[in-house]
Amino acid sequence: MNVDLRHGEAREKPEKLSELLRHVSDSAGDKITLGQIANAMDDRSFGAFLVVFCLPNLVPLPPGATFILGLPLVFIACQMAFSRLDNIWLPKRLRDYAFDNKAFSAVLDKFIPWMNKAERVIKPRYFSGNRMIERVLGVFALILAIIVFLPIPLGNMGPSLALALMGLGMTERDGVVMWIGVIVGVAFTVIVSYVGYEIITTVIPYIISQIPYYWQAFINFFG
Q: How many percent of the chain have pLDDT more than 70?
């Protein structure tokens, strides 16, 4: 009887995110859809999708790339904060969107070893998956996602790291990792806000003040 109980507990133990992602890739064909990933993640899909869409943002990107890669994070964060559902909802076109499974597997090959190292110390603690907490985190995740979305040079990496930690903590039900992500996110939000404030109050007024000189130089050059 005790053996059966132990086996039952083992079967009920949730898979790690790296195992879930690898299983989805291995069970798919040449193409894999976002709907397949969402179905595999089920009620952990908010955190899992944050991690999936944050991974490309953890490396330096060319100008304009964050517009494409940051938009899904805004979409996910909005649902985290305001959706009535416990898992992510995808419109049919997005749900049926398919991409090359070999490319997806190659990305997993690069990042899963790092995820495996992180998962050795990640464990369910101090977080029960409360939906209200997820909503509050969703509001903050939306702020970070907007920062990622903005065309700030190298501004995508810090907020993306924070979102990835938050998503990993939510997926693995690890409150420690989740709140570390929040702290990292707060730090980068303060930094970006300060830089933005300096640009608005110093750089932009200076540029405006120099317009008459630039205009006069332009007239003199072509006059």
A: 86
